[in-house]
Structures are given as C-alpha cells and as structure tokens.
## 1
Amino acid sequence: MRRTGIFFHYQDGDRLRDFPAALAGILQKDNVFFFDAFYPGKPPSCFELEPISEDVLLRVHTPLMIRQVKDSGAYQGALYSAAGTVAAAVRIWTGEIDNAFVFTGYGDHHAGSSFFGGGCCFNGAAIAVQELRHRFGVSRVAIVDTDAHHGNGTWQIFENDPDVLYACLCPGSFEERRSKVNIEVPWTTTDDAFVQLVTDGFAARARSFRPDCIFWNWGYDGTRGEYGDMGLTPGCHVRVARELVRAADELCSGRIVVVLCGGSRRDLAREIIPRLIGVLCQ
Ligand SMILES: [Zn+2]
Ligand SMILES: [Zn+2]
C-alpha cells in the first residue's frame, strides 16, 4: 500500500468547497497523511504546512514578476499553492511518503519565468523541480500535463533544459524539441483515445527518459460540461491516474506529485478527486 500525502491549503472560490469533507473515507486510512496550512474552518490536521521563502521563488521567477503577483492580491494563495507542491516533492524525495495530491488555489502551467495569468501565478511544479535539484541533487524530472490548455509557462521555463521531460497534452499542434513535447489532442476526443495518448505519448517517452520523479499537472477542465470540454468523462481521469501511477512504479519508485490545475465545477471536483486520490493510495 502506498503512502499518500494530501496537501491542502488556502483556497479561493467555489470549486473545492466540499473539501476536505469529500475525502471522509480516505483521510482515515493509515497510509494517508493530511498536510494543511491555514484553511478557514479546517479540520484537525496531522501536520502544518510550511511556507516557502522568496529565495525559492527566485529560482524560477523574476523579482519583477514576484512583485506583480504581490500587487495582484493573489500572493498568499499563490505562495501556499506552490508551497504545497514543494512540500509534497521534498517529503516524497526524503521517503516520508510515496506520492501526493496537491490542492491548489492557483495553478501552475501558465506561469513562466517572467509572466503569469489564466489562474496561474507561480509555477509550483517548476519551483519544486528546482528545489529538488538544489537540496538533493536530483537531475532528471518528468512533467506530464493533462489540463485542457497548453502549458506555455512550464514549456518556457524548461525550454532549454534537456533534463526535464515535459509532455503537454492539449489541442495545440504537435511539436517536439529538447525533451519538450506537445501531444496534439483533437478538440473533441474519447476516453480511450485520450488514455492512449497518455500511454503512447508520455509513458513511452518517460520509459526511455528515466526520470527520478514525475509531476502531473492535472486539470479536469477537459471534462464534458467544463470550460475546456474535450469530451472526457470523469472516469477518464481515474484511468489516466492508473496509467501514471503504474509508470511511476516502474520508473521512479512510485514517486509522483499530482498538482491540481484547471477545472471549475464543484460537482465534478467532488466526483473525480476522491477517486483519483483513491488510485494514489491503493
Ligand atoms: Zn500543450
Ligand atoms: Zn486549463
């Protein structure tokens, strides 16, 4: 049974209003560990979540951009979102847990080294990658992105870094260079076709790349009825989770960090996220 960390911190908006209550059957498990920060009305937690310093942000983002995020009013939520991803990655690397799910208030993949937008402020996965490198000398990392939109920020940050495999599945055209690959998904697709793209497009490349850790920028905005509707059903995300957990088991001792990205509907979050975490902690 894998040890799964759930990182839960400050949230804005409606989509996660049913959490952590919706994880009732999961949080009681002996192999599930709940880390939180300062969520209002939070339940008793196992651990407090530590923030990250500006030095850690500066490994990825410019001073000007950090100041702009501060001025935007989203700084606190963005900082704790990124802090959750960093804490998850560090605890996985040190062997405290095997994998993790990070609830974020602000996402990752539209944040580049000097720009942000589209609900993303800091690129938590990129910051965590640099933290693993800085503290532990980790070199090779894979990031798979199944949010419905193109991860322009993550692509830009690692554009010239051959030791980061970044596979983005989105309706943009196919492109591949220096371990960065955009895997074209039709505007409307099926669960079977999408899972196939994950296995052929990401898992196969990861097998030859041999990452030390996998980050999954996971959005549910491609689900039917969402703002990035690609025709996927809720069950598709669970199937993708099984594939990626299997790949992590095979390639990097099960080390995978799931970072919540796009998606807006509260009912879909409540339906999908507990099932997805259920795959992680099996
Ligand atoms: Zn893309
Ligand atoms: Zn998106």
## 2
Amino acid sequence: MTARTFATIDDLQAGLLDASYLADRGLASVLFLALKLEKPLLLEGEAGVGKTEAAKAMARVLPARLIRLQCYEGLDVAHAVYEWNYSRQLLHIRAAQEGTVSEEELFGPEFLIRRPLLEAIETDEPVVLLIDEIDRADDEFEAFLLEVLSDFQITVPEIGTIQAKRRPVVILTSNRTRELHDALKRRALFHWIDHPSLEREVEIVRLRVPGVPERLALQAAAFVQGLRRLDLEKPPGVAETIDWAQALAALGSHELDPDLVESTLGSVLKHHEDLQAVRDAALADLLEEARVAAG
Ligand SMILES: Nc1ncnc2c1ncn2[C@@H]1O[C@H](COP(=O)(O)OP(=O)(O)OP(=O)(O)O)[C@@H](O)[C@H]1O
Ligand SMILES: [Mg+2]
C-alpha cells in the first residue's frame, strides 16, 4: 500500500475536507510540512478543538493505518512498546520437555507482544502514529519517546535494533496539563489549535451534522462562542457544539428558544457548577446575542 502524496498545502487542505476535517491554513501548512520533512508534529490546544481528529483525518486522507498510543500516568514500555509473551514462552518450554530450549529461541520475535510504538516502527504499511495526550505520561516516558522519535528505531536487547522501514507520520497531542520538555519540542513541529472563529465553527457543524438547519447551526455556534467568553470551569470545545447541534436537529428544532436551551444545555456544559452559573445569570443574554449574530 502506498500513501498519497500532496503537491501543495491546498491539495492537503482539500483532501482533509473530503475526509470531513476542516483545517485552517495554519494547521494545513504544518501538517503538510510534517509529511514533507518526515518530522513529528506536536498539536496543543484546549479540549475538543480537533487535535485527535486531525490525526484521524490524516490517516483517512493518506490513506494510512492509524496506530494510537493513548498516554496516561504510569504508561511504561511494556504497554507502549513491547513485552514478552510469558505464557507462550512457558508453553513452548513445556512442549519441548525432553529437548532443551535455548534462550535465543525463547526470546525471538514470535514471543514478542507488539505494542503501538513497535508496531508503528516495524510495519511495512503507511502509518499515522497518534501519541495522544502525551502530557499525561510521566517525564521518564517522554524521555524514552525522544529517542524513538529521533532515530525511528527501537532496541529490544534480546533481538537487536529494529529500524523503521519507512517513517510513520507522527502526531502528538497535548492538553498542556504540564509543560513538555524542550528536547521533545525541538524535535517536533509545533502548532497551537485555537477555538475556531464563529464562521469556521458553523462550517465544522455543517460538515459534521449534515442537514442541520442553517439558522440553528449559526445560533448554536454563536451561543457556544459566547459561553467561551465566560469564566467557566470547562469551556465547551467544538465537540460540544457538534453534540448540541446534533441533539437540537434531532429534536426537529430550527432555532433556539429559552426552553430548548434550558433543556439541552447539558450537551454543552458538563460541569454542574458551569450549568448552574449559566442558567442563573447568562442564559438570556447569550441567547439574545446568538439570535443577533444569526441575523
Ligand atoms: N476542524 C474540525 N473539522 C471537523 N471536525 C472537527 C474539527 N475540530 C473538531 N472536530 C470534531 O470535534 C470533536 C472533538 O475533536 P477532538 O476529539 O479531536 O478534540 P481534541 O482536541 O482531541 O480534544 P481533547 O483535548 O478533549 O482530546 C470530534 O468529533 C471532531 O470530529
Ligand atoms: Mg483528543
């Protein structure tokens, strides 16, 4: 399988749009460069701005196999790279009962359980390697990752060094719960994804919720944009706007009204305190603003 190549940033941007992802010029440029320069790309931004989806969309458009490493505190090599299949080794020893089993035999490739990083390095297929929420992993793991991403190789002491046959497209995402090391940033291209402008958010909603009434999409997006200006625990991302528009459209609505907003606001705000604050103070004003914005 060969992946598509893109001659220009515009080509890639159009391809992503076909794959239902609306990338602005800045994001499309840096994704284009990641392909051209074969460099990892670090995407940072608030929750729900489309970081993870950018990697998925790249996999759809290339096309390439998406291999995802979800990071969390305590993530270690055994879960990210490989581990030995002990039960299989044990079975092998039992089966060989009479004969002797050499160490070399037991620590061969067939007894290796491949985790996402090794899988991405070893495979012949085009791959998008998504290292999601790297800020949740520990420092130690980040340092290890640095080596992998510099040389695109992994060493298994018992087997040797495995070099990537072709470099995977690597996309790292971070919510910035902690600052990443400069060394990692130096090796990667970087892009900050902001909340979209009203116009873009409406476009994204129309892309993701086909058939949504135009006016409803506009009002919902404008309302959410208003929510983001408040001082909330968890400002809603694009994901919430899409969910809300979907819910509103499913109810057969064509525009927002106070009761409708009241009864569906739970798809937008997931914090009890946020919901309470908006219901108590801001709802009517935001609704009025959204109606004005929608003309
Ligand atoms: N530019 C976009 N074009 C199309 N869909 C988008 C875009 N941005 C966001 N979305 C949609 O919004 C939802 C949330 O996006 P995604 O999960 O990628 O956010 P995220 O930045 O990874 O959030 P988190 O930090 O919470 O993981 C997805 O369903 C995605 O389809
Ligand atoms: Mg994500």
